[in-house]
Amino acid sequence: MKPELERAITDCGFEHPSTVQHECIPAALLGQDLLCQAKSGMGKTAVFVLSVLQQLDKDESGAVTCLVLCHCKELAYQIKHEFDRFKKYSPGIEATVMYGGTPVQEDRKMLSTNPPQILIGTPGRILHMAEEKVLKLDKLKFFVLDECDQVLENITMRSAIQSIFKLSSRNKQVMMFSATLSEDVRSVCKRFMHNPTEIYINDGSKLTLHGLQQYYVNLPEKAKNRKLVDLLDALDFNQVVIFVKSTLRARALNKLLISENFPSICTYGRMPTAERMEIYRKFKEFRARLLVSTDLLGRGVDFERVNVVINYDMPENEDDYLHRVGRAGRFGTKGLAISFVSADEAQDKETLEKVRAKFVVPLPELPDNIDPTTYMST
After folding, report:
1. How many domains does the chain have?
2. Starting at the edge strand that comes first in sequence, how are the strands of the sheet with 264-267 ordered?
3. In Å, how far from its chain's centre is CA 248?
4. What are the Cα distances from residue 158, in Å, to 61, 115, 123, 188?
5. Residues 6 or more apart from 141 whose CB is under 8 A from it?
6. What would the DSSP string read from start to end of 147-180?
7. Domain co-membership, 197 together with 211
8. Contact at 8 Å (CB) between 148 and 178?
9. DSSP state letter for 366
10. Could you tell me whether strands 335-342 and 173-178 are parallel, antiparallel, or unpaired per DSSP bridges?
11. Long-range contacts of range 231-234, CB-CB < 8 Å, 24 or more positions apart?
12. Using one digit for the tens of pLDDT, what is the confidence trace for 129-158?
């Protein structure tokens, strides 16, 4: 790789590529379209960030050359941070993030006067700018979808992606990534691609994180609050993410935890953008240790100090479970995932069995005592 990239990689403390990086980066550097499925926390973001920066010519400034699209603002912000880390010694290359909930006139001004080479954003705002012709995509060379199944399974987002794709140049490299890719979504992905290199980990047992301890608690719905408070008192943790199924439950649970003297914060999709991004930064920077979230932050977003995930509400399906618990135990570290299986919800037990079957994990009942060394990295 370019010396300036190697220098930045060294600064980040990376010595060896992960398996997915080892397999994907050479194919990407050859300019091939790429469709990649690999477990959470193994550095998929670095695959496209490094591949784009290696191929990008800093003399091509003045036009958007790389477009990265994802499903939520927090992930867009995180990807922008990754580009910033790796282009540290590459002056002249600019990366900008763009999403809804911010003043549209500022985006118009930036795109009109000083368009970045790398633009990261969510589909709605990007399409808005492209349809206004303020965002010009005729010189686009790289088209990237992160968490591509989440984006393409959502009808509104898929429609926006298709429109953006049609408005961009024909001769571009397309790269898509996720930890979960069904056969149906793969076929949709490949409609955007030309003879792609496909890298899949199909074996469910290889999709789980090996340092992650996973348990469930069988209990009635009304017992969840007391059990959660008892767990937070008993467990050792750096940071905890507690997942719930709705905005109302996120607010209510956050309020309850604060009343029990746990200084938690919460986030959800309908929160004002500025407040939502401040919550994200606060947790990312370790200024808070407890986060209550809807599935908004169940995918892609990396909080390196999270070592405990609690599913206060079980997710709707096994893939969402995999993404949620993948917020802990990343990059080979230890972690703990505890799921509340409500005796009042038949689907909870069904999801639990599907998780066991697909990902080949025992998922036993939570014991009375857990050795902290099994989920706390030293």
Report:
1. 2
2. 212-219, 335-342, 306-311, 239-243, 290-293, 264-267
3. 23
4. 29, 25, 9, 10
5. 55, 65, 66, 169, 171, 172, 173
6. SHHHHHHSHHHHHHHHHHHHHS-SS-EEEEEES-
7. no
8. yes
9. P
10. unpaired
11. 231/310, 231/338, 232/257, 232/262, 232/290
12. 999 999 999 999 999 999 999 999 989 999
| 3-state class (DSSP) for residue 216 | strand
CA 299, CA 296: separation in Å to the nearest integer? 7
What is the average per-residue pLDDT within 228-243? 95
Distance from C-alpha of 341 to C-alpha of 364, rounded to nearest angstrom: 12
Question: Do residues 175 and 301 both lie within one domain?
Answer: no
Element at 50 (helix H, strand E): helix 44-55
Is pLDDT of 247 > 60? Answer: yes
Q: Please tell me the pTM assigned to this model.
A: 0.88
Residues 38 and 167 in one domain: yes
Q: Which of 173-177, 202-206, 258-262 has the lowest mean pLDDT?
A: 202-206
Give the Cα-Cα-Cα angle 158, 100, 301 (nearest 5 degrees). 70
Residue count of the chain, please give it: 378
Where in the sequence is the domain holding 278, given as residue range(s)?
A: 205-374
Round to whole Å and give the CA distance between 294 and 313.
10
Residue 199 and residue 20 in contact, taking contact as beta carbons nearer than 8 Å: yes
Q: What is the pLDDT averaged over residues 188-194?
A: 95
Shared domain check, 168 and 52: yes
Same domain, 221 and 351: yes
Residue-averaged pLDDT of the chain? 92
Our CA dihedral for 269, 275, 277, 282, rounded to 10 degrees, sits at -120
Cα 192 to Cα 7, 61, 166, distances in angstroms: 34, 26, 10
Chain centre to alpha carbon of residue 339: 20
Picking from 300, 332, 310, 288, the residue whose alpha carbon sits closest to that of residue 122 is 300
Distance between the two ends of the chain, CA-based, in angstroms?
33
| CATH number of the domain enclosing 369 | 3.40.50.300
Side chain identity, residue 193: M
Contact 330, 304 (CB under 8 A): yes
The radius of gyration of the chain's CA atoms, rounded to the nearest angstrom, is 21
